[in-house]
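S1.2 Input.
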Amino acid sequence: MAQPSGDASPRTQPPGRAEGAAVVTDQQPKRRTSRGQVLPSLLAAFFLTLGAGVAFLSASPASADPVDRCTATTGAVVAVDFGPFGGPVVRGCDTTPTTGYALLHEGGFSTTGTVHDGDGFICRIGNGSFGTGTEYPTPDKEDCVLTPQATAYWSYWIASPGQKNWTYSPLGAMSRTPEDGDVDAWVFGGTDVGGTTGKPTFSPDDVRAKGGATTPDPTDPTGPPTVPPGSVDVAAATRWVTGMLTDQERVVDEGATAPDHLLTTEAVYALAGARSKSPAVQKAAAFLAQPAQTNAYAYPAGEDGTPDASAAARLALVAEATGRDPRAFGGHDLLGDLVTYVCPRDIGDGETVPGCLTKGDFRTTGQADAQAMAVIALLNGGVTPPADAVTRLTGLQCEDGGFTGILIRAGEWCDSDAASTGLITLALKRAGGHDAAVAKARAHLVKSQLPTGAWPSASYLTTGSAGPTGWAAQALRALGDTARADAGVSWLSRQQLPGGGFGFEEGETEPRLFATAPAVVAGAGSDLVALTTKKADPPATQPPAGEGPDLKKGSAYLTDHKRLIQGHYYENAPGSGFADFGMTIDGAYALAATGTDNTALRTIVDFLDKGGKDGKGRGIHDWTMIGTKYAGGGFLGKTAVLAEAVGRDPRDFAGQDLIGALAKAVCPAKTPTPRPCAAKGNYTYATSVFSQSLGVMAQVRAGETAAAAEPIAYLKSLQEPSGAWPSLIGEKSDAEVDSTAMAAMTLDLLPDAASQAAVDKALAWLAGRQLADGGFPGASGNSVNSAALAVQGLSLDATKYAGGIAKARRFLASQQNADGGFNVIKGGQPGSDVRASTQAVGGATGISFGTLARSLDGTAPEPAPSGSGRPSGAPTTPEIVTPGEETGGTGAAGGPGPGGALASTGVQVVGLAAAAVVLVLGGWATARAARRRRAAPGSAA
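S1.3 Output.
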C-alpha cells in the first residue's frame, strides 16, 4: 500500500505574507435558511493567528457555520492541519455540536474511510478552502484499502475552554460530545502509543473562536463557584459505611466469604475521617492487624518476601488512623519494609529489580496513589522517606499543573485527574520543600473546578464525580482555600444518597465505598494527612455486586437484536449495514466462553461459515482478504481460532483454508518497510503482537506447531526483559497489559521449558500492573478491556494469582451497567460499549483463547443465509462514524451502537497498535486505546 511521501511540501504561508505577520480577511456572512442549507458565500477568507507563520483558514463550504458564529461560550471549533500537504490549517465551526464527527462535517470537511473497514475509519480529509476540495492523503500516497500505517494517519486532539495544551482524545470522535467553547484538531502524521508525540504545532488558543483572543478564559475564575451552602450528612454516611462491614470488622463482597482487605481499609479511613465513635473503626483495624490478614493482604509472597507496597502503605495508614503502631502491625514493621523496598535504580539501569520501574518507586506500587500514601504513612509514622521517593511524586506533575494517577516515566503521556492531584498535593505539602509544585497543583484544582463546585473524574468530562471532588476539596482545605473546598462539599451534599453513601458519578443512584470514603472525609472537614496524624479511618471503595460480573446479563446485552443484526453480526455504525466482522468474532468468543446462549453462538458461526452477507453484500472473507496481497496473519488467525473453538474445520471455513493461508503468510525475510513484513517469522501485515499471537495460536491449535516455528520464535523475540510484550511490531511502542496477556496465552500452548518460563515472566509482570481497585491500566486509563485480558492471562496460573484474579473480576463487576453491558474505562464517559462488553464477558471467565472450546451439539443448524439486511423498522441511514473509528457508535454512551470510545483517528483500540488491530480485527482492545494509534493493515486483532 502506498505511503504518504516523506518529502511532502512543507506548510507554506499565504502569498505576500511576511514571517510572523497577521493577515486577516473579513469573512462574508452567510444566510442560513436551515441547518445544512446555506447560500454560497461570496468570499472565503483567511484567518491567521499571530505566531510561527502558521496560516489558519476558516472553512466556509456551503453547509458550514461561519466561524465567527462560534464564541468562547457558544458552539465548538474544529481545525484540520493540511500542512503536510502544503496547505494551511483550516478551521470550521458548529454552533450546535453533537459529536466530534458531526463537528468535523458540519465544519465543512469531507472524509473517506477504508475499503476494509468502511467510512468509519477515516483515511482522508478534505475541505473546499484548500486544493479545490481534494481529500488528503491522495490515492497515490495512500490507497485506503486497509488501516493506514501508524506513522501516517489523521490523529484526533481536543481542548476544553481555557485549556492551553492539546490532549490526545481518549474517546473516538463519534463517541465524544463537544461542549460549548471546545476546540478539536486533526493532524496528519504519526504519534506514539501514548500520544506523547505528533501534537498539533499550533495551540488551542490559536484556533479558538475569534482566534482565541479577547475572550476571557472561562476556567480562570476570580472567585469560587457561586453555589448554595450545603454540608454532608456525616452521621448518615457513617451508618452506611458501618453497615457495609460484616460483623463490624471487615468488608465481604456479595457472594464471597473471604474479606476484601482493600475495601476494609477504605472503610476505616472513612470512619476515622468522620471522627466516628462507632466501635466498627477499631474492630476493623484490629481485624486487619491479625497476622493472618496482614500476611494475606500485604505479604502475598510470604512473610519474608517483598511486600505489596500499596497494601503495606494502606495498612500503615490504618494503624496511624486508629492509634496503632505501624512498626508492629500484624507482626510486621510496615514502615521499615516500605523503606527497605524502595527501588534503587531505573529499569534498564543495571540488573532489573522486580517490581521497579523508576528510582524512588515503592516496589510493586505502579500507581501514584500508592506512592503518595506510602510517603504520607512514613512521614506520619516519624520516618523520613527516601528523597527519591518524594521526588518521584513531583515527576508525575503534568503540564497543566495536575498530577497523573500512573507512575509514568519522564516524557511519557501525562493525563492529570483531580483525585490524583488532590492526594499527591496532600503528600507533597506534608513532605515540605515542594512549594512550586504544590502551587501549580492548587492553580490546576482552582481552574478545573466546575461551576457546580464539583470536580470531574477526567479532565475532558463536564460533570462532577464524588471521589475526585472529595480529594480535591481535602487538598484545597489543607492549603487554606476554604471557600472552594466548601463549594465542593456543597456539591457533595446534593449528591449524597438517601442511605448516606455516594455514587461514583453525578446522578448515580448506587452507593459505592470507594466514592464515599473521600467524600465523607472532605465533608467532615478533614483530610488523609490530618486523620492519620492522629486516629482516623480510611477512605472507602465501592462494594462490588458480587464475585464477578453477571455473565448471563452480559451475554443478553451482546445478543440483543438492536446490536446483533438479525443475530448475525455487529455493524461498524448503527444503520450502516456494514458488518464489523472483527467485533462479531469477539462477541462469538464471549458467548463460547460463557456457554449461556449456544443458539445465538451457532447463528453467528453459521452466518460466517455458510457465506452470509452483510447489508453491503460483504462476507467474512471480504474482511480476511484471503487470496489477496492484503491477507494478514491477524485476520486469518482470528477467524481460524473461532472455527477451532466451536469445532469447525479451519481448513474449510466459509470455503477457504485458513491454516494453509497462514502458512503462506509467514514472512521469509524483512521487507524495506514494516509492512508487509517487519522481520523473518512475522506474518504479513501483522503489525501488532495481537495479530502475531492470533496467527501462532491458530496454527498451533490446528496441529501445525512445526509450520509455526518461525512465527513462534519471532513472537518470543519480542518479549522484553521485564517479561512484558509491546503493542506494536516494527516500530517502537510501550509494554502493555493486553498484548502481554495475549502473548502469554499463546505461548502457554507450547510445552517446552523456554516457553513456559516466558509465560511465567509475563504473568509476574501482569500481576505487578494491577491497580489498587483491581483494575489494570490501558492507554485510556483504568481499562475494562485490559482487566478482562489480565484475568485470562493470570488464570494460566490461577492458584498463584487467585487474589489478583478475584480483585480484577470484582473490578469488572463494578463497571457493568444495568443493561448488562460494560463501560470502556472507569471514570470515563459512562455507558455500555459493545466492544468492551465482548472482552469483559469472555475475559471474566478466565478461559484462555488458546483453550477456548464450546460444543454446538444440540443446537439447530442455521440455513445458509442469503444476505442480511436491516431488521424491520430499523433505521436505513448509516450513522456517521468517527474519523478512523472502526466501531461506530453510540455504544459508549449507552446507545445501541456497537462501538465505543476510540481515540486518535477516532478509534478505540487495543493499543495503538493493536488499535489498528482491534480496530480492524475487531476488538481486543476496547478501550485500550484512547490514546493509542492503530497499527498497520492486519494489525487489528
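S1.4 Remarks. The CA atoms of residues 606 and 649 lie 13 Å apart.
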